[in-house]
Amino acid sequence: MRSRTLKRMMAGGCAYGALMLGVAHAQEAAAPEEPQAVEAVVVTGSRIARQDYVANSPIQTVGAAAIEATGQVTVEKALSQMPQFTGSFGQGNTGSTSTGLNGGQSYASLRGLGAKRTLILLDGRRLQPSNPDGSVDLNIIPEALIENVEVITGGASTAYGSDATAGVVNFKLKRSFNGLTADAQYGISEKGDAESFRFSITGGSDFAEGRGRAVLSFDYTNRDRALQSARDYYIFRTSAPGLSTIPQGTVLFGANLPTLASINSLFQGTYGTAALTGNSAGRYTGQIGFNTDQTLFSTSGVPVLNFRDPQTDNAYIVNANAAGTSQQVNFGYNGSSMQSDLDRYAVFAKVDYDLTDNLKFFSQFTFTDYVSVGVSNPTLASNVYGLTVPVTNPFIPTDFRPILASRPTPNAAFTFYKALDILGPRIQKYSYDVFQFTNGLSGETGFKDWTWDGYVSFSRAKFDNEQTGGASASAISRLLNSPTGGTEYCAGGWNPFGNLTPSVECARYMSRRTLNQNTLEQRMVEVNVSGSLFDLPAGTVKFAAGTDYRSNEYTFKPDSQLNQPDGTSDILGYSVLRDASGSVDTYEVYGELLVPVLKDLPFIQEFNLDLGYRYSDYSSVGGVQTYKADFDWKIVEPVRLRGGYNRAIRAPSVGELYAPVSTGSVAIGTASSTTTNGDPCDVRSSYRTGANAAAVRSLCLAQGVPTAIIDSYQLGTAQVFALTGGNPDLQEETADTYSFGAVLRSPFDTPLLSRLTASIDWYDIKVKDAIGSLSIVNAFQFCFNSGGSNPTYDPNNYYCSLLTRNSASGVPTNPVQPLLNLGQFQTTGVDVQVDWSFDFADSALDMIPGSFALNVALGYTDKFKIQNLPGAPVYDYVGTIGTGVESTAGTAHPKWKSVTSGTYTWGPASLGLRWRWIEAMENSAKVVTPTSTSRGVKAYNAFDLNGRVELPWDTALRFGVNNLFDKAPPQVGDTEGNYDPQNYDVLGRSYYVGIRKRF
User: Where are the alpha helices (DSSP H) in 56-177?
Assistant: First the structure.
């Protein structure tokens, strides 16, 4: 890539740096010592400036050094390691076969409730969303200027408005910058891939005799793909049936079954194989595939006989049962990535100027341009995208014609599945341009200590999604229906039977490029005033109040090939997309009071209340209210309690209201007798083999599985193509958060223990009328009475209404994942943090020079409940993996998760070791079906080494080894080679080295 030479130069220049910065830890917001008289500041979650920097909500602060110590070149991966976050959509998003609107992006998902419920701020102000659902892409954060990151758990809508239902992540930037700083970092995995390089240069200075301050920062980041094929724990030939769509091509007969006699006449009489079996009517119920030499083989639900092509990762034989009487030729793909690539440029500029002693002005500009490329398997012409071949096609092998003629309707066209390897992999290029321009004024009112501030902001995110390697349905149809096999369209025509390579001209004729464009705009105006109101015996009552206006607009323009005039899509694997647009306007007012209630009493050194209210008027859902009542109580000097109640809301985003219908492949697993995976109508499934098999069979018939194949039906794939889209009738979701905690400081004066601090916080977040897509996996399971959701096996049950089937083959056709106000989510847990540092000179080990710092961040989740629809059963998924509130929110919900760090510092050098631990989890299928044998994950322990050394000339070196012991990730679910790159380290051992120089 274009930065490779620069990367290698960086690696050579930094190779001598053998020590690096200290431990990555998240420290509690309260300082370890009683603060001095300092400038009042605003802590995240409140609009009132306080000199004591006390937070009433559970809050953690992560410094820039802690982020650096993770060795990541993007902040998303560093945050996801914290116990408060669930691994979300990010650099593990390596490729997609859908036309979604989030490719290449990185999100933060607090408490597993999703990125759209996690409000992202920059210096307390909203950022431009990069996704129509309102999620903010962390790739746009100016990382070179991060001072710290404040993370608040629970609702904060009173302070900031919509979206802060799970909490707030506030990126605070350095407030002043003088001089010039250059920073570079290079990283690589032990496998020689996953190279990363980041370079930033930041300059700042005062001007106009100190009345003005300016800073300009440029940041370039490049991250290469990491390949699954380079890791031995990735398996491309699974032992269970999966996709049966292979390059050789296979025929599904549906209800138009050939005679068993015609099959065995060829296989026994000509090929010399054993006899195949069929149904009681003497019909063959399996599939027929095509060898490259134009002979035939049997597959899917029958023994694989006469398969003559070499077995490869793309086509290999697996057993569906121990006896080997049911086999399948599986499709696999070994070109997938485990880390997406990224090529990003970012610019940040800010000017502050004191117009007068009482009037200040600022102007701020951010711009990010980045490209990420996703690579996925070739087009699979199967399921709803299966091909239709007429019996007149001239390339139909001679051996196959008598079989076609034996069908009840011999001249009918047949369904043909094929992996179109001939067109190469599908490549999705995601290109983003995001900018935000903000101007503001602030000053003193002249009345008491009241101050005011206001700003206006305009921002835009432009997203181009280019897809190559797609296949044109109309072009392929013309080739298949041509009496010449397509020679009039391209040289040699196209013979689809067998793994044959067509002419370059024919491949080009079938291949297509598409381009979808998405634009989001946001306009904001906000004015605030704050100060002191009056004095009470316990102190001064302070307030903050303000009003704001926000407009969000959305426009989507699909490629014309996905938006045909006849209402269809011409690209196999991609559904119809329509032009879409919409906007939401919001007007808000808020007020907040800080009331000192008691002071200087026994066991009540301070007791303060923080009360807030906000009214918001949305053009979409109308007026909504949010409010809060928090407290902080200093019992004695070392002990402070905090907590309260917050009502938060999240109005539907402009994308959730108006996004176009699009399709995406959704994994449902492979049917088996011991799990709830796969299509319940598949004869291998636990539904068809269980106690209610007869009722299940009847429901499958009612849904459209043909009678002729009901007792032999197998889906032959582990995924379906589901439809999702916006819903203009959505209403707001509400969240109630209760929290209670304590901040503890050491009561001891001894130097060994004086720097010991701890915090413990309990939280309970309950989201009602949650907006989300009803998972197709759940729709399948609940339609067929998992958890008692359809006890009469009624085909008109709501969950069943989301499923439609092809009447000839029984295959699910574009099941719907509707966007609805669902039931509710609830998560409850406890966060514990301990920080302790001391000098060895003050301990029994006084012969050791230097100091030691220990940090423990521990998260315990007591509940993670999901109710899909009002009145539906509530399931608790805590301690499981596999089910999330939405696809990008993360599906791992361990009871325990921790990060423990220890750092030894001696003079200018430090060396740290970080331990990352995630408790073992069961498969979420067991929550609904306790008898399920679906595989969970084992406990995970990974260790990272990091170090830092300060050199002369204002130079610092850092280096690290992540996953020091090369710990492999645990397999997720029953599919071999399936891992969770958002929560576990899938790269293996990796190294990084960096250098910073100040001028």
Answer: 64-68, 75-80, 157-160
Q: Give the DSSP letter of residue 561.
A: G
Given a contact cutoff of 8 angstroms between Cβ atoms, the answer to whether 687 and 784 are in contact is yes
DSSP 260-312: HHHHHHHIIIII--PPP---TTSB--SEEEE-TTS-EEEESSB------SPPB
C-alpha to C-alpha distance for 856 and 899, rounded to whole angstroms: 6
Tokens 């100040």 — which residue? 998
For the chain, the straight-line distance linking the first and the last C-alpha, in angstroms and rounded, comes to: 30
The residues near 233 (Cβ < 8 Å, ≥ 6 apart) are 968, 969, 977, 979
Inter-residue contact 345 to 215 (CB < 8 Å) = no
Q: How far apart are CA 80 and CA 77, in angstroms?
A: 5
H-type alpha helices, 710-869 = 776-783, 798-801
CA distance 553 to 498: 50
Q: What distances in angstroms separate CA 284 from CA 257, 302, 411, 936, one per listed residue? A: 6, 9, 18, 38
Any residues with CB less than 8 A from the CB of 729 and at least 6 apart, and which? none
Q: How far apart are CA 767 and CA 737, in angstroms?
A: 9
| Joined tokens for residue 80 | 């996801």
Angle at the Cα of 291 (from 287 to 293), degrees rounded to 5?
A: 145
What is the distance between the alpha carbons of residues 188 and 428, in angstroms, rounded to a whole number?
24
Q: Would you state the structure tokens that stand for residue 437, as one six-digit string?
A: 């321009």
Find residue 987's DSSP bridge partners: none
Hey, how many other C-beta atoms are within 10 angstroms of the C-beta on 392? Answer: 12
Q: What is the pLDDT of residue 38?
A: 41
CA distance 994 to 999: 17
Query: What is the distance between the alpha carbons of residues 407 and 945, in angstroms, rounded to a whole number?
Result: 67
Radius of gyration of the chain (CA): 31
Identify the three-state secondary structure at position 759: strand
20 DSSP β-pair partners: 948
pLDDT tens digits for range 325-347: 889 999 988 888 888 888 999 99
Helix (H) or strand (E) holding 703: helix 693-703
What's the number of CA atoms in the CB half-sphere (13 Å) around residue 490? 18
| 727-756 tens-digit pLDDT | 899 999 999 999 999 999 999 989 999 999
Single-letter amino acid, residue 432: Y
> Helix, strand, or coil here: 556?
strand
- CA-CA distances (angstroms) from residue 929 to 669, 783, 937? 15, 14, 17
Q: Which amino acid is at 674?
A: T
* CB atoms near residue 24 (< 10 Å): 29
Map out the domains of the chain as residue ranges: 250-338+378-423+471-512
Cα distances from 480 to residues 42, 146, 253, 833, 891, in angstroms, run: 68, 58, 17, 65, 43
CA angle 629, 632, 634 (to 5 degrees): 160
* pTM of the predicted model as reported, rounded to 2 decimal places: 0.86
Helix (H, G, I), strand (E, B) or coil at 707: helix
| Residue carrying structure tokens 């769509």 | 245
Please name which of 925, 923, 849, 909 lies closest in space to residue 879, comparing C-alpha atoms: 923
Q: Out of 109-118, 491-500, 974-983, which region has the weakest mean confidence (pLDDT)?
A: 974-983
- The pair of structure tokens assigned to 584 is 């939401």
